[in-house]
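Let us work through a complete example step by step.
Step 1: write down the sequence.
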Amino acid sequence: PRPSLLTTKVYLIDDNDRAREVVKGYLDQWGIPNQAFGSALDALASLRGAQEADDGMPLILCDANMPDLDGFGLVERMRAELDEPPRVVMMLTTTGQTVGAARCRQLGITDYLIKPIRPGRLLRTLTTASSPQVDYAPPSSGRPSRAPTVAQLQVLVAEDNAINATLLRRLLERQGHDVTVVEDGRQALDRTAEGRFDLAILDMQMPEVGGLEVAWLVREEEKKQSGEASYLPMIAVTAHALKGTREACLKAGFDAYMSKPIRPDELLEVIDAIVPTTFGAPERERPRRRSYMGDAITADDRFDRDKLLTYTGHDVELARELVGMFLEEYPGWVDAIRLALNEDDAREVQRVAHMVKGAVSNYGAETATDLALIIERMGREGDLANAAVALRELAESLERLRPSLEDFVAER
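Step 2: predict the structure and record it as tokens.
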């Protein structure tokens, strides 16, 4: 039987069906007792019942943005109506991160997560929040210490430099992982063929076979194994952070790219982002395809009709006019970003992505909004290596959004 990391029950509260289903799947997989709610008001009623029955209070994992009663309103109601208000972990969106974090500080909420929710970070946050030994006062300064990753991973490190290999081995073993080190790409291919590793970290400049070729060959072999969940997460490491290196790594099949010198916190964050789960997953249960983006995006392409009507003062005809304009304009915006990428025009990428973000955010569509924000940041920072991948995902997200927008315009 799968052991449970937490004995405290978790109330998961999120009005987004898909997001709630994904997070509940993590909790169920880890054996954490939980109950899911699509409404903060329903959860509050259940909490009152638990108090009357003296059942003890659960840990609250709550979305900040919900209709009727949002996450922050729920916290205020719990503190006013319950004898012992439960501990809260708040889930914030990327676009509302700054305002949401400030509101958390105002309410003394020290635990929050940024959507899309990453399994490793979720597990550590819940474990910390449920621990009675932790001092919950927010730190006055400095970065909070990092809890070690929970699951033991089988990690393959391919690095021909003995000093760098030792550094990686020690960093990973300190987190409880089992590490195998090889010195060249040929050995790396031989070992990955064994099929027992959860993660591979490959240096780009290796003798025999380079890291790019290793990644490409591993992915080609996985395609042949269509009947098995055989995906191996891979991280590229290089001392030469030249323009285009990251894009080349991603095209070869790597999930992430890091430049030397390796920073411990960054390495652990990358592992959390690309390894499918950090606890209790059945052996070799891995996705067939993962996003190449470092900021993984949950699939939420819903059109939020109520949000749009709020912006238009509930003027339905105006809302339809605006949606119609967007449907006509956005293909041109996507083409404009693509052209700017071809011309390496970071400023134009930033400008057009900013327009897309502002327009699509009116319709809910968190996936497209977050992707447009990522592209905007890439343009602002002048780092366009991954922008083509992000643009492809943005275009796909907008196409998934299109039918619901067209249906709204057609309503009469």
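Step 3: interpret the result. The domain at 305-410 is CATH 1.20.120 (Four Helix Bundle (Hemerythrin (Met), subunit A)).
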